[in-house]
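Re-run with default settings, no changes from the original entry. Doing this only to confirm the output is reproducible before filing.
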Amino acid sequence: MTLPELNRSFSTDEDCREILTRLRWPECVDCPRCHNRNVWWVQSRKQFTCSECSYQFSVMTGTIFNDSHLPLPIWFMAVLLLVEARKGMSAMQLKRTLWGQHKGSYKTAWYLCHRIRAAMAQAERPMLDGTIEMDETYVGGRKKGLGVKLGKEAKEVVIGLRQRDGALRFFHAEDARRGTLAKYIRENISEDVDVLITDEFPAYKNAVGSVKHETVNHRSGEYVRFGTDIHTNSIESAFSLLKRGIMGSWHKISAKHLQAYCDEMTFRFDRRKCPDLFVDTLRHMVTADPLTFQNLTAA
């Protein structure tokens, strides 16, 4: 989907509602409360009414779009911009693109971005198998006003798992200790995985359990084991993409919302070859639970 195609196909609220309705109810519209399929359309309110419980609802009710006052074409434009930006797009850039330099609200753009990310986070994530690379990295800036680099203990830990030539997982973790690593291995890697490849970090040795485990020793200058395909270059490349997004696009993100940005990056990465990425994202948005501003900003 390109911007010209988006403008031609979804320039009106009616066009947007039509595709959202097809994505949310592929077979037949049913009531979100009682699941009755005998409903009728109220044109003046742009809502459905259930004949059984009299509940009035729209295609946006109970979804990421819930209670939004933004025009749907603006929503669609924002979705396209986010899914096509390989390194992500900041809320400030989205605001300037959609409303211009002196119009619109940064808070509105920020909330809009996070609602799209929330839908991405609720997408199904099957277990990884085959050849898996695992590594950890540390993200964080400098002490304000001092320009002093923070040590690892003051930064945030991101654990990465990548199936060779396949899906990617990023997790904002409390630490990189053995128990934490074992938890992510257990929850994301299938039991019949071929091999798990890590670097020489000692915590991996006992975290992998019964999984076949290979390592590369970066400290000794080994990055690819000679004559084999044992390396962690794929997950390190994915970390590089994440960090370029943080430094070059988002610039500053809080530890509280770091996982949301990781989810956005992995959602887009896993679907990088998907020809209908835009429509697939909309499909997740009309099936995901709502995200209120109060919950998003809660302590």
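DSSP finds eleven helices and ten strands in the chain. The mean pLDDT is 93.
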